[in-house]
């Protein structure tokens, strides 16, 4: 065994062609995963979090080569898995297993639980029935069920029990790596807790490495050693779990953390509200793909914008570009300012004159001109260049221009969050 | 105002299944005052959804049946109303928002048409007026550039936007009560935060009451005024949101709060499984799993509600006259 | 159950080098299938090269019989063997099926139909023309047809007319054939036709449906376009063309043409189920455990489409039987076959006289069609596995 991490992913990409028309010509690409790198060391649990459509599940299946990655390398114990021959591939399948989200569809309804759990054994050539039964009953007991359950059918079990059985099936080949795709999100909280602690126990006893995919930061915090945060197919921040929670460096992570409703009525209303929806992954925004929603988006250097007001200006511009400004309903400058939460005037007179001109463009019906004027006058680095995932002062990497070494726009409050 | 807007008393809803009669809701009582937000919280199988669907008899009958109990809405007993009159309440004075916005919208009509229909179902207004109202509702729930989007079909909206449209439909006739069943469960957290904020604002603006069903204690803490905790068809604990979160009294509520993941401490589990809904245990429904159970928990009916401070009540024998809450006091110290 | 009470820190270790899958590792049922098919092939060659007339004694096999053999072997392998081998599991399904009165009745009818069709003609022979016993009414009924010149009543004659006898329980035709024999022979033909054509349909539909659904992409496009196209072709017209120009009229052509042209609908159903199953957790789990496509198809996809295929196939069978009767009625079938259609043709006005011939055949046909439909419905209800608890 070498010092290589168990799993190393380098610049992984998975693009899906978008086809349309009669001839099914490729008319675009959905960049589900667009160049991410991370590693899972032995015995470590790494989490990937993000909202739906951020590419975390695609990452899981591409890493296991259940889907062919478009580009990039995946190393398992230092060997490139994309270069495996059939035998090596089969061996890899034994050593890396996956658990899926929905325990209700996880089992063939015609097969007993025992048969389902034993299936991987048969696939790998162990066909001796007695031997299979012995291994299955052992493992069922290990996940907290009884050996007799092997003869029952999946529909006789509750969701949590089924997820235990799914774990048994994934662990029966004694894998080194377990990829768990939202393993508890279909379960009730109390059942979630049971499965999570089972995962934790099994993992520490077996020295398993685990890649856990989840949208739920609470779950991730419970079991992961390190966490990667994904947004629109890109990794925006990677950090040891506690550090990520205590000191998030990327505005998206910050917003994600703040959106989790706390089970504490005294902290209500503290969510940082992200405006807008997640953009369409077949047409992601230029530069930093989060700039359409980022509350900390970097204002142009030549102007002064008080706290957060550049966000509103940018929102107004983006709405104008998308034709989402309804000039009939919003007659007049003040109505427009109100609709987009713009201050009645910006403190910086230069900035204000540009904004005022743009608003009167829009008010007179020429929304396009307003958009162009704003785009020309207020360029932002966030829209221009895609930030790299680089180390921050906090010691872990994040992909955000606020951390650019050469950048003068890094406000002090990110490393020292204000409330 | 002494009479609550909605008063559910001793509601029993049963379902006939192949395996026997499921007592999904088995003697549940709670009130919702005008302008108030009440959260029904519980895990799957607790009966929370059936309870709120029983209010306007949205449960499929058969197999479902409201076997007993009373649902008073503004003084009128809804359980005894004929279907025809009930439909006037549904979508009229009582609005509904469901978990899955996909299913709540008809894919073959534009959202505008659906809203206009929802309005005209209850209000005798001309189409143009209804459309105007639809327009302003969509605008209010945060659909940008309504003029363009009102004639779009549901599939052209994202999940969060669809849920906003559904909220708009529920508001079509200015309901006094909005029943929202897990309205944010299918949404991403950042979108959930937006929808919760929207609901909160709308409620303030309109002074409407809200009955909010969820399994997520975080969401409860975010929006509830009062909380009703359900387990296996029964109410375990009710109280003001601060009381319930800061001084959870029923062992089930405590356990539920303990097993929330990601709070930086060791995860507790409840252990055991939900009771068989066709044959629930005698005594306290929670006793097979309760860490504090005493012999008295195992017989008779669900323990009576005991006051644990103000309007805060728990259905647990340990708060009865015979006990001094020693075990629980101890448990609270951990 | 707290999960912390684990004993040993490691699961059973398996030495995978000992477990290399061997190609010789075939199940008896697979071996049996191959052997049986090989036996048919050998006899076929023998019959065509060496003993070109009768195979054994007077038993002369015709092409329809060969097709039937193959169909029966497949039926046994994929229908009977799994049912019996997994009796523990299938007994539950069977009991569930029999608990339903409709299921019980339809099964009884179909079994009766099958037994009659199989052994009937062997036991009591083909319907024979007998001009001394024409126009006999069924037992318990009387008829005045015997007043026609030259018709003698076998039973007693009273004022009410000629009484039927037990010799001809269902009466006889205008040429004196026993209606019992006719119905049995009709059942025989219908049975042969349904087994072969249904087997062809099931095999082709399953193969095409699963391939299209599982592999998707252009394979799916091509196959489903073809199905669209095929569904626009009326099988009856093709039969008439093929039968008159190439293969000759008869059961073989009928089974082949209908079997090969009527699977489109079933294939579509199988495809859509496959599409759904392909994304299911168990298929993904099997794939992530290293299962080959073949394994997934054989273990999960195809067995889970069984309910759909069986239901759909049992719905096609009545149509086939009726089509065959219709073709015979129109004289488009083999003249040597004393088919129900041909008899109907003769028994119906203007030629026909005895109502009982038409009645017996109609009852038989309606019963059989109903039985298959009810069987299909019940099978669907019973076989539909509980995918969710
Ligand atoms: S690069 Fe700009 S838009 Fe992107 S996260 Fe950082 S501040 Fe926000
Ligand atoms: S009544 Fe008994 S079983 Fe029920 S919660 Fe209280 S202590 Fe536990």
Automatic annotation (TrEMBL), chain A:
Q: Does the keyword Transport apply?
A: yes
Please state every residue range assigned to the domain named ABC transporter: 18-257
Transport: is it a keyword of this entry? yes
Q: Please give the Pfam families that the UniProt record associates with this protein.
A: ABC_tran, oligo_HPY
Record GO terms (molecular function) = ATP binding; ATP hydrolysis activity
Keyword terms: ATP-binding, Nucleotide-binding, Transport
Mind listing the GO biological process terms from this record? peptide transport; transmembrane transport
Fetch the PROSITE patterns from UniProt.
ABC_TRANSPORTER_1 (PS00211), ABC_TRANSPORTER_2 (PS50893)
What CDD domains does the record tag this protein with?
Answer: ABC_NikE_OppD_transporters
Gene3D superfamilies per the UniProt record, alphabetical: P-loop containing nucleotide triphosphate hydrolases
> InterPro entries in the record, alphabetically?
AAA+_ATPase (IPR003593), ABC_transp_ATP-bind (IPR050319), ABC_transporter-like_ATP-bd (IPR003439), ABC_transporter-like_CS (IPR017871), Oligopep_ABC_C (IPR013563), P-loop_NTPase (IPR027417)
Q: Source organism's superkingdom?
A: Archaea
Question: Which PANTHER family does its entry note?
Answer: D,D-DIPEPTIDE TRANSPORT ATP-BINDING PROTEIN DDPF-RELATED (PTHR43776:SF7), TRANSPORT ATP-BINDING PROTEIN (PTHR43776)
Q: Which family does it belong to?
A: Belongs to the ABC transporter superfamily.
Name of protein: ATP-binding cassette domain-containing protein
Q: What is the lineage of its organism?
A: Archaea, Methanobacteriati, Methanobacteriota, Stenosarchaea group, Halobacteria
UniProtKB/TrEMBL annotation, chain B:
Pfam families reported in the protein's UniProt record: ABC_tran, oligo_HPY
Give me the reactions it catalyses: Ni(2+)(out) + ATP + H2O = Ni(2+)(in) + ADP + phosphate + H(+)
| InterPro entries linked | AAA+_ATPase, ABC_Ni/Peptide_Import, ABC_transporter-like_ATP-bd, ABC_transporter-like_CS, Oligopep_ABC_C, P-loop_NTPase
Annotated keywords = ATP-binding, Cell membrane, Ion transport, Membrane, Nucleotide-binding, Translocase, Transport
Where in or outside the cell is it found?
Cell membrane
**Broad enzyme group:** translocase
Give GO terms for biological process. Answer: peptide transport
- Membrane association type: Peripheral membrane protein
**SMART domains, alphabetized:** AAA
Q: What is its EC number?
A: 7.2.2.11
Domain ABC transporter span(s) in chain numbering: 6-257
Q: Name one GO cellular component term.
A: plasma membrane
Q: Which GO terms describe its molecular function?
A: ABC-type nickel transporter activity; ATP binding; ATP hydrolysis activity
Partners and quaternary state? The complex is composed of two ATP-binding proteins (NikD and NikE), two transmembrane proteins (NikB and NikC) and a solute-binding protein (NikA).
- Any idea what this protein is called? Nickel import system ATP-binding protein NikD
Provide the species name.
Answer: Halobacterium bonnevillei
UniProtKB/TrEMBL annotation, chain C:
Its GO biological process annotations read: transmembrane transport
Q: What InterPro entries does UniProt report for this protein, alphabetically?
A: BP-dependent_transpt_permease, MetI-like, MetI-like_sf
Cellular localization per UniProt = Cell membrane
Q: Which residues cross the membrane?
A: 30-46, 66-85, 97-119, 193-216, 236-261, 353-376
According to its UniProt record, what is one Pfam family this protein matches?
Answer: BPD_transp_1
* The entry's keywords: Cell membrane, Membrane, Transmembrane, Transmembrane helix, Transport
What name goes with this protein?
ABC transporter permease subunit
């Amino acid at each position: 065994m070498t010092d290589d991490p168990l799993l190393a992913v380098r610049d992984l990409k998975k693009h899906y062609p978008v086809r349309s028309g009669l001839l099914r010509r490729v008319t675009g690409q959905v960049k589900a995963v667009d160049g991410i790198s991370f590693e899972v060391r032995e015995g470590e649990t790494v989490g990937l979090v993000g909202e739906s459509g951020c590419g975390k599940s695609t990452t899981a299946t591409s890493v296991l080569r259940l889907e062919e990655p478009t580009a990039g390398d995946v190393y398992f114990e230092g060997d490139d898995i994309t270069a495996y021959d059939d035998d090596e591939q089969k061996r890899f399948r034994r050593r890396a297993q996956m658990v899926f989200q929905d325990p209700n569809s996880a089992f063939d309804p015609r097969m007993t639980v025992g048969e389902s759990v034993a299936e991987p054994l048969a696939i790998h050539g162990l066909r001796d029935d007695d031997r299979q039964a012995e291994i299955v009953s052992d493992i069922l007991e290990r996940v907290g069920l009884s050996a007799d359950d092997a003869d029952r059918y999946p529909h006789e079990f509750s969701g949590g029990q089924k997820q235990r059985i799914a774990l048994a099936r994934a662990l029966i080949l004694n894998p080194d790596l377990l990829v768990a795709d939202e393993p508890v999100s279909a379960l009730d909280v109390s059942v979630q807790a049971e499965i999570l602690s089972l995962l934790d126990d099994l993992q520490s006893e077996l020295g398993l490495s685990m890649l856990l995919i989840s949208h739920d930061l609470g779950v991730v915090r419970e079991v992961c050693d390190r966490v990667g945060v994904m947004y629109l197919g890109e990794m925006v921040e990677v950090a040891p779990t506690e550090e990520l929670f205590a000191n998030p460096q990327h505005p998206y992570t910050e917003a994600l953390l703040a959106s989790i409703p706390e089970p504490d009525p005294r902290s209500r209303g503290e969510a940082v509200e992200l405006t807008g929806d997640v953009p369409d992954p077949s047409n992601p925004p230029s530069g930093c793909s989060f700039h359409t929603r980022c509350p900390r988006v970097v204002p142009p250097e030549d102007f002064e914008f008080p706290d957060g007001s550049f966000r509103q200006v940018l929102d107004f511009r983006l709405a104008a570009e998308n034709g989402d400004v309804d000039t009939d309903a919003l007659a007049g400058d003040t109505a427009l300012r109100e609709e987009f939460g713009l201050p009645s005037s910006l403190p910086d007179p230069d900035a204000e004159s540009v904004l005022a001109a743009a608003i009167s463009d829009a008010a007179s019906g020429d929304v396009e001109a307003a958009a162009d004027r704003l785009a020309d006058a207020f360029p932002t680095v966030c829209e221009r260049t895609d930030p790299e995932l680089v180390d921050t002062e906090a010691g872990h990497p994040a992909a955000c221009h606020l951390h650019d070494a050469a950048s003068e726009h890094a406000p002090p409050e990110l490393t020292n969050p204000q409330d | 105002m002494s009479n609550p807007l909605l008063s559910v008393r001793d509601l029993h809803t049963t379902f006939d299944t192949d395996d026997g009669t499921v007592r999904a809701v088995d003697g549940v009582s709670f009130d919702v005052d005008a302008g108030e937000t009440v959260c029904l919280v519980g895990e799957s199988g607790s009966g929370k959804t059936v309870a709120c669907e029983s209010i306007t008899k949205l449960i499929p009958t058969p197999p479902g049946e409201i076997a007993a109990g009373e649902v008073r809405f503004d003084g009128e007993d809804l359980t005894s109303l004929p279907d025809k009159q009930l439909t006037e309440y549904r979508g009229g004075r009582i609005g509904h928002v469901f978990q899955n916005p996909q299913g709540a919208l008809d894919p073959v009509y534009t959202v505008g048409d659906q809203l206009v229909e929802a309005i005209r179902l209850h209000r005798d207004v001309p189409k143009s007026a209804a459309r105007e109202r639809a327009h302003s509702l969509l605008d209010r729930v945060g659909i940008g550039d309504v003029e363009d989007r009102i004639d779009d079909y549901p599939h052209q909206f994202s999940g969060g936007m669809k849920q906003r449209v559904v909220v708009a439909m529920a508001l079509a006739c200015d309901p006094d009560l909005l029943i929202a069943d897990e309205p944010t469960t299918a949404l991403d957290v950042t979108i959930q935060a937006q929808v919760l904020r929207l609901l909160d604002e709308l409620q303030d603006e309109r002074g409407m009451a809200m009955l909010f069903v969820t399994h997520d204690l975080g969401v409860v803490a975010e929006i509830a005024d009062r909380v009703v905790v359900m387990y296996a068809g029964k109410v375990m604990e009710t109280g003001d949101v601060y009381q319930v979160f800061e001084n959870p009294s029923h062992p089930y509520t405590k356990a539920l709060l303990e097993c929330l993941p990601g709070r930086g401490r060791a995860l507790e589990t409840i252990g055991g499984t939900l009771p068989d809904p066709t044959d629930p245990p005698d005594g306290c429904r929670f006793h097979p799993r309760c860490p504090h159970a005493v012999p008295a928990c195992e017989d008779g009916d669900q323990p009576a509600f005991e006051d644990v401070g103000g309007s805060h009540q728990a259905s647990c024998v340990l708060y009865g006259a015979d006990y001094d809450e020693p075990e629980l006091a101890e448990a609270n110290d951990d | 159950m707290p999960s912390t009470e684990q004993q040993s820190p490691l699961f059973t270790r398996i030495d995978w080098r000992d477990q290399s899958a061997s190609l010789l590792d075939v199940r008896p049922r697979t071996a049996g299938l191959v052997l049986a098919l090989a036996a048919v092939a050998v006899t076929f060659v023998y019959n065509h090269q060496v003993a070109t007339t009768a195979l054994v004694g007077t038993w002369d096999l015709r092409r329809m019989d060969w097709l039937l053999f193959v169909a029966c072997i497949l039926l046994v392998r994929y229908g009977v063997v799994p049912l019996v081998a997994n009796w523990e599991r299938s007994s539950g399904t069977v009991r569930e099926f029999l608990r339903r009165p409709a299921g019980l009745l339809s099964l009884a009818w179909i079994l009766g139909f099958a037994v009659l069709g199989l052994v009937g003609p062997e036991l009591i022979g083909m319907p024979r023309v007998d001009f001394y016993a024409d126009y006999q009414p069924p037992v318990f009924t009387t008829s005045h047809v015997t007043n026609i010149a030259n018709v003698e009543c076998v039973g007693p004659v009273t004022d009410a007319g000629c009484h039927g006898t037990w010799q001809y329980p269902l009466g006889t035709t205008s040429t004196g054939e026993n209606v019992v024999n006719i119905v049995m022979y009709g059942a025989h033909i219908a049975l042969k036709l349904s087994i072969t054509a249904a087997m062809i349909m099931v095999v082709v539909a399953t193969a095409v449906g699963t391939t299209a659904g599982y592999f998707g992409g252009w394979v799916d496009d091509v196959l489903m376009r073809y199905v669209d196209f095929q569904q626009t072709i009326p099988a009856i017209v093709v039969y008439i063309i093929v039968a008159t120009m190439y293969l000759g009229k008869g059961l073989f052509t009928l089974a082949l043409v209908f079997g090969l042209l009527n699977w489109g609908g079933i294939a579509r159903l199988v495809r859509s189920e496959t599409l759904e199953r392909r994304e299911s957790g168990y298929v993904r789990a099997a794939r992530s455990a290293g299962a080959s496509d073949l394994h997934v198809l054989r273990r999960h996809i195809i067995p889970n489409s069984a309910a759909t295929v069986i239901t759909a196939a049992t719905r096609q069978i009545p149509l086939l039987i009726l089509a065959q009767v219709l073709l015979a009625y129109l004289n488009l079938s083999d003249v040597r076959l004393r088919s129900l259609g041909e008899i109907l043709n003769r028994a119906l006005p203007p030629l026909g006289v005895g109502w009982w011939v038409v009645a017996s055949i109609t009852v038989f046909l309606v019963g059989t069609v109903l039985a298959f439909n009810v069987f299909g419905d019940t099978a669907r209800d019973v076989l539909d596995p509980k995918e969710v608890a």
